[in-house]
């Protein structure tokens, strides 16, 4: 097996040879990647089931379909994205050719995480290939079955000169990060993001960070609670709450909470039955360590569990759980939950909920549920977040025409669709000037004298 530095040398010399520059080469690799997903769908689904007990429907929707749609979108639009972008000119540059040229960055590193272990590697990879880079892919060791499948499949389908998978955990990733990359694209926790930034600073490598945080869901107004509860439960408990854009907590008035609770119970029963542990449509927590963290959080919380609360360590199962009477200083509000526990916090007014959100780090996604568009617009105007969606959760990230990413502590930069291509491209400012109009240049050459500025 090649060492990390042999892998990097191979990729760097392929990049310098210009192999990845032609559109044809990029299109071929994207087409092969599509074939990789299509021809191995069953193997992928079974690896995802091994790692997280992902229900087939959720795995198809959030891993297979989102990736194949992204590939199709890139294959269809690549030619247009690669074209030079001509810009407006001044009088002095009227006869020049002035344009922005998208160039690949070089050899880039993509570090993925375990909750959507296929999607979170392949979506950035699509952008990186489309932009003409060579890529080192580092899957998460925690979703071990998917990690090993990706390591087996990528070299079978993609050019081994240009793309490589490096496996391992924190130690191997730290060693990898000592190398010089032209860009690092990291998805994961804020804690590890700090290590990535430190390593990147040594080589002044630009970094995209796709992080998390606590995504609020503000519920205000006289809603149809059945629909609100169903949408909220779906977005929260999809993948057992292990989604970076899952609603982390609900903010609402005491009256809304009282109306919402029976609707939440009903939606949970309808979706996952009264015995969710036996329901094939409910995922498991990824590892015993993550299971323990969540159960500890629940134990430390001073809130009142009104739904669920049970867990089974051996099965890595935690019941869909709803907790009320949660205060701002509660254990559940000190870190991103990233599991099937939904705290509900009551506030007196919409303004108070906006203040609550604005006191905290900028979230990756912010949701508002209301029957009044003035409420939706007020929240939109008075807050900020990576993404925003009214009256639903998660779905805004399925559109390749919208940039996906955080702001501030929830992430730097964005991807999906054209945004991924842009993230992995350098926008080179080009002016192609000929030899005409040299007589005009005497205006800018010395001797300047005293009267040139008065023109
Ligand atoms: P993590 O940060 O622990 O691990 C992610 C990757 O970093 C893995 O490949 C791992 O091998 C590597 N890694 C771990 N420790 C390292 C170290 N010390 N140095 C270098 N590399 C190291 O992942 P996690 O905390 O389990 O991920 C969950 C977080 O990711 C949540 O906060 C979630 O919101 C966030 N997330 C964000 C997105 C997004 O798109 N914005 C998507 C999914 C998850």
From TrEMBL:
The source's superkingdom equals: Eukaryota
Keywords of the record, alphabetical order, are:
NAD, Oxidoreductase
**What CDD domains does this protein map onto?**
ALDH_F3AB
A GO-annotated cellular component: cytoplasm
Query: According to its UniProt record, which residues of this chain constitute the active site?
Result: 210, 244
Q: Residues in domain Aldehyde dehydrogenase? A: 13-427
Spell out where the chain crosses the membrane.
none
Pfam families per UniProt: Aldedh
What's a GO biological-process term for it?
Answer: aldehyde metabolic process
* Alphabetical list of PROSITE patterns matching this protein: ALDEHYDE_DEHYDR_CYS
Q: Which GO terms describe its molecular function?
A: 3-chloroallyl aldehyde dehydrogenase activity; aldehyde dehydrogenase (NAD+) activity
Q: Does the keyword Ribonucleoprotein apply?
A: no
Similarity comment text for this entry: Belongs to the aldehyde dehydrogenase family.
The name under which this protein is listed is Aldehyde dehydrogenase
**Which lineage ranks, top first, belong to the organism behind this chain?**
Eukaryota, Metazoa, Chordata, Craniata, Vertebrata
